[in-house]
Write a structure and sequence with these properties.
Blueprint: E1 15-19, H1 32-37, E2 42-46, H2 59-80, H3 86-101, H4 108-115, H5 122-139, H6 146-157, H7 195-206, H8 213-227, H9 234-248, H10 259-263, H11 267-278, H12 283-315, H13 325-335, E3 338-340, H14 341-348, H15 356-364, E4 369-370, E5 379-381, H16 383-401
Antiparallel strand pairs: 1-2, 3-5, 4-5
Helix pairs in contact: 2-12, 3-5, 3-9, 3-16, 4-5, 5-6, 5-9, 6-9, 7-8, 8-9, 8-11, 8-12, 11-12, 12-16, 13-15
Length: 402
């Protein structure tokens, strides 16, 4: 991407319009100070269209993005060629990391249980919604349009906020401040009257083929977050859209590179990069996405290596002939570290009455541990796999403290 003189490299900035506001909260429920603060007009963002805009970056930033793109492609080829289905593991890990940016945290075990139908942990249930949104993003990558974006959001929200799932917002939202009104918010996205034409323009921008893919995805992500078209779930949907673009434009083919886990390294810088974008500066968000990719790839490789080591250790501990069902179950545990007899039966194509046959040798070898204590409806976990997956999340979080 060529560099040009600063005066010709400006990206469209957000401007502002005045909108009237009437608090929905009764004045009796507010202090006089709060009531006064939320009287009168407020300023909402006016977001420029970008479908035909020409982004320019300094040569060093363009080179960084190109290097990160090459690293993503190599990682996708390496992990995608694995016999073990790491694509599922990485997609779940990326979904959890994206949720953590929104302060939704949960351990891997709770997430897997939620995937199996448990509703005991609210955060885990929401994260499973994000897994569904990521899957929808990948499945719809070749036909990214307004219907696809709504489908991703519906997959994300349908199980815990069905009233807004897959629907553009019809009210003003704001970021920061308080819940009473937009006055004093850190950022007030555009009024909902503007969403339809801004999303049409956004889709047209995502379909361009004249931009480097990672730079293209980073800019599209920042534009989507600026439009903020949903009442909730914008960040997670916007990060799922990054993966739709990486897949749709051919940079990834097999796996979901856990970019959100890289963004966890400095969430403050991530949010500042979005603010800079709204001020017409593309460099921070592109730099952030590139560096997040490097961090994510490093963390992802460590996870894959640890899972390989865990699996290799089982070979010397499990007493079973080559080709036995127990080894098929061992491979399953790398992506599904919590199982019950119904799942084992379904995955291995055997009857539930025969599920104990592959489970028992793994229990004897310490690969699986029963954790319910029940006589019926028992469940088993691979503590080693769960530890590796939780370690991936811990490394992503720990980067924030460094």
């Amino acid at each position: 991407m060529p560099s040009v003189p600063a005066e010709s490299s400006a990206w469209p900035c957000v401007s502002w319009e005045s909108r009237s506001w009437t608090p929905s909260v009764s004045s009796d429920a507010l202090s006089r100070r709060a009531h006064k603060r939320h009287q009168g007009p407020y300023r909402a963002a006016l977001v420029e269209t970008i479908a035909d805009a020409h982004p320019y970056l300094p040569n060093a930033v363009a080179a960084l993005a190109a290097e990160a793109s090459a690293a993503i492609a190599r990682f996708d080829a390496e992990v995608g060629a694995e016999v073990v289905p790491f694509a599922t593991v990485l997609l779940r890990s990326e979904s959890a990391a994206s949720s953590m940016i929104e302060n939704l945290t949960s351990g891997t075990k709770a997430i897997v249980l939620a995937e199996m139908g448990s509703r005991d942990k609210h955060n885990a249930t929401e994260i499973v919604g994000n897994v569904a949104a990521m899957k929808a993003a990948i499945n719809l990558a070749d036909r990214l349009d307004t219907a696809a974006i709504l489908a991703m959001h519906d997959a994300l929200m349908r199980n815990y906020a069905p009233a807004i799932a897959g629907k553009w917002r019809r009210q003003q939202v704001w970021i920061g401040g308080d819940c009473v009104g937009p006055h004093g918010a850190m950022f007030v996205p555009p009024h909902h009257d503007h969403i339809a034409h801004l999303i049409d323009d956004f889709v047209a921008f995502t379909r361009r083929t004249d931009l480097p893919v990672l730079t293209h995805a980073a800019i599209a992500h920042a534009q989507f977050e600026t439009i903020h078209p949903f009442s909730d779930g914008n960040g997670r949907t916007g990060r799922a859209l990054v993966h739709a673009m990486l897949r749709g434009h051919g940079l990834t083919r097999k796996v979901t590179v856990p970019v959100s886990a890289g963004l966890l390294g400095d969430t403050n810088a991530y949010f500042h990069a979005l603010t800079a974008y709204r001020n017409g500066d593309l460099e921070p968000i592109v730099t952030m996405m590139a560096n997040a990719s490097f961090a994510a790839i490093d963390n992802g490789r460590r996870l894959v290596t640890e899972l390989h080591e865990v699996r290799a250790s089982w070979n010397g501990r499990v007493n079973a002939r080559r080709g036995a069902m127990v080894w098929r179950l061992a491979e399953l545990l790398l992506r599904q570290p919590v199982v019950d007899t119904a799942m084992v039966a379904a995955e291995l194509g055997i009857s539930p009455d025969n599920a104990a046959r592959p489970i028992t040798p793994l229990v004897r070898a310490g690969v699986l541990t029963e954790f319910t204590g029940f006589a019926r409806n028992r469940m088993w976990q691979s503590q080693e796999v769960l530890a590796a997956l939780d370690g991936f999340a811990a490394r992503a979080i720990s980067r924030t403290a460094d």
